[in-house]
Design a protein that fits this description.
By secondary structure, the protein is of the alpha/beta class. Helix content is about 55%, strand content about 15%.
């Protein structure tokens, strides 16, 4: 794992592992002073909660987690970074899920490393924290 500074952007995968009690993820998350989440990640978390068999429990879990995060929403600057990242992926013939490009764009725009467990983010030239 590479760490730079005491803040990071979180990918949905890390939060799901946190919810499942993954000790290395919990330890890493507790080491940051500030964690940032994009509204895209929040949407993915709420989708999972609403789609689950115990939706109220999971909605409460998501809401509780997000109260400790700084939430960012995309703007035109994010859209520019998104366009650059997606064009890079297309040129290389290496598509990744659409939401993940938006999540990466938010991290790049705000100059924070992206904490993820998804390997496909490695196809982008961005700063990553991974376990």
């Amino acid at each position: 794992m590479t760490m730079t500074g005491s803040e990071c952007f979180l990918d949905t995968s890390v939060i799901i592992h946190y919810f499942k009690g993954h000790s290395a993820i919990i330890e890493s998350l507790n080491s940051f002073d500030e964690v940032f989440v994009s509204s895209t990640v929040a949407g993915e978390l709420y989708y999972g909660a609403f789609a689950s068999s115990n939706s109220q429990k999971h909605i409460d879990q998501v809401q509780s987690f997000l109260t400790n995060c700084i939430i960012y929403s995309p703007d035109i600057s994010t859209a520019i970074v998104y366009g650059k990242l997606k064009a890079h992926l297309k040129r290389n013939g290496t598509p990744i899920p659409e939401n993940d490009i938006w999540i990466a764009a938010m991290a790049v725009e705000h100059k924070k490393p992206l904490f993820t467990t998804d390997k496909h983010f490695g196809l982008l030239e961005i700063e990553l924290i991974s376990i």
